[in-house]
């Protein structure tokens, strides 16, 4: 691997910080939604808000070169009038400084889903006003941290956020409305372009990208019908983020299709111009699994409710009416949470992205969830080690085949709050003992990954 390859781990503010009502933080839409529905929430999460120094110390000791984390908008800007919260601003200075002092490269996500409730109240991402609010946030964080941070991403997984919140409706704001899904998706991609423009205009030294929930597309056979279904699925899962962010163009065949049924009049010519002129320097790919596609065979749309737990073991299917169907190979291996384990998908997916776009790639999330008893001194997470080993091997093979991959981040640094699945869904290299004041206990995988980082991947 290249000399300065960024070996790291990743978190997101809402999922790890806790301190939800401390330091002047205002509620996010997740606080409101989880509190109102009396669901397990991130009020405490991994207590990173108080224990970040210990976490960064563990990263250093664990050989990490970089830490991917996100900035909580509700900590930074308090209201619609744009009032800045100095305590929140200072908190991220502290995290960034602690990283830099310990030789850890901060890799910062501006938005990882915790939209302030005051913005949700005016329509959330379906409102053009939120794009302006995001621009104000971008200006603030670039001027505060821009001299210290080299790696920026505008959004974490716009597709996953929008589909879960506006189409499937199992994440806040809990809506099921295709028109709103289209609007929210578009405004996020517009906000991405606007933030890139702000960043470039400030002449800062770093790079800026976007993080996508990547579903590399595989077909059940080589027929023409399957190839057409694969193209539709690629538009649905990937292209409207990746083509828009990298090439500055929404996929025209997708727009044409949507235009037949939905109202696209909210899109202004200037928006398309902004997207065309402001594209990313690199792409962040979060990889958990591939999408296996076959042609649409009839019936109404059926979506898979993500995070509904483990049961189907690959027997369910997704139908997107008149577009495609997604199926799972029942002979594959699945995690306890019903995600297919398919490292080859990462290898092929990286090469697909490399061939199509040719810009630097960071694998910004990859990991596996399990149920674990953390009352023991050191969790023996062999399954995780095997999973990570096979996925890192896939990246190394992709690099050998010519792809420009510059970093890899395991999800997650420590156990944290998993959206809607709470804290029993453990992804961390470091266990959090919620029964013992969020005590940190490195797992076997932590010590294994230390060797990977220190040998720059040679030990795989
Ligand atoms: C990604 C998100 C992360 C994280 C991860 C695991 O989509 O960017 O925030 O949650 O998936 O997903 P989950 O916690 O739902 O299992």
UniProtKB/TrEMBL annotation:
It comes from the Bacteria. Gene3D superfamilies: Glycosidases (3.20.20.80). The keyword Hydrolase applies. Keywords: Glycosidase, Hydrolase. PROSITE patterns: GLYCOSYL_HYDROL_F1_1, GLYCOSYL_HYDROL_F1_2. Its EC number is 3.2.1.21. InterPro entries: GH (IPR017853), GH_1_N_CS (IPR033132), Glyco_hydro_1 (IPR001360), Glyco_hydro_1_AS (IPR018120). Pfam families: Glyco_hydro_1. The active site is at 365 (nucleophile). Belongs to the glycosyl hydrolase 1 family. This is beta-glucosidase. It comes from Lysinibacillus piscis.
């Amino acid at each position: 691997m290249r000399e300065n390859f960024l070996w790291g781990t990743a978190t997101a503010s809402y999922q790890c910080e806790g301190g939800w009502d401390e330091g002047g933080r205002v509620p996010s839409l997740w606080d409101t939604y989880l509190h109102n529905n009396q669901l397990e929430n991130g009020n405490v999460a991994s207590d990173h808000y108080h224990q970040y120094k210990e976490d960064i110390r563990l990263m250093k000791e664990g050989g990490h070169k970089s830490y991917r984390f996100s900035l909580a908008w509700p900590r930074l800007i308090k209201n619609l009038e744009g009032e800045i919260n100095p305590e929140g601003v200072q908190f991220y200075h502290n995290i960034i400084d602690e990283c830099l002092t310990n030789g850890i490269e901060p890799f910062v996500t501006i938005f990882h889903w915790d939209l302030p409730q005051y913005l949700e109240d005016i329509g959330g991402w379906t409102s053009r006003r939120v794009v302006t609010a995001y621009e104000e946030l971008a200006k603030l964080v670039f001027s505060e941290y821009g001299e210290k941070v080299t790696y920026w991403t505008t959004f974490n997984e716009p597709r996953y956020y929008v589909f879960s919140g506006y189409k499937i409706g199992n994440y806040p704001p809990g809506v099921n409305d295709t028109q709103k899904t289209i609007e929210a998706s578009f405004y996020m991609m517009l906000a991405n372009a606007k933030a890139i423009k702000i960043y470039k205009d400030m002449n800062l030294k770093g790079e800026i990208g976007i993080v996508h929930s990547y579903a590399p597309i595989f077909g059940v056979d080589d027929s023409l019908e399957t190839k057409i279904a694969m193209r539709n699925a690629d538009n649905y899962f990937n292209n409207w983020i990746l083509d828009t962010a990298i090439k500055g163009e929404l996929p025209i065949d997708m727009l044409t299709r949507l235009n037949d049924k939905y109202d696209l009049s909210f899109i202004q010519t200037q928006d398309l111009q902004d997207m065309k002129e402001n594209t990313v320097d690199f792409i962040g790919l979060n990889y958990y699994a591939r999408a296996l596609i076959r042609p649409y065979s009839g019936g109404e749309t059926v979506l898979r409710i993500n995070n509904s737990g483990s049961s189907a073991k690959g027997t369910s299917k997704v139908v997107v009416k008149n577009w495609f169907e997604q199926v799972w190979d029942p002979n594959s291996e699945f995690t306890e949470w019903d995600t297919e384990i398919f490292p080859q998908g990462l290898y092929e997916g990286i090469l697909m992205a490399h061939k199509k776009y040719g810009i630097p790639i960071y694998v910004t999330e990859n990991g596996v969830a399990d149920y674990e008893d953390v009352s023991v001194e050191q969790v023996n997470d062999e399954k995780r080690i095997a999973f990570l080993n096979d996925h890192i091997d896939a990246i190394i093979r992709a690099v050998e085949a010519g792809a420009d991959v510059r970093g890899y981040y395991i999800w997650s640094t420590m156990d944290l709050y998993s959206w809607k699945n709470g804290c029993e869904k453990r992804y961390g290299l470091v266990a959090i003992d919620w029964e013992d004041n969020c005590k940190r206990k490195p797992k076997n995988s932590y010590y294994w990954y230390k060797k990977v980082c220190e040998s720059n991947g040679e030990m795989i």
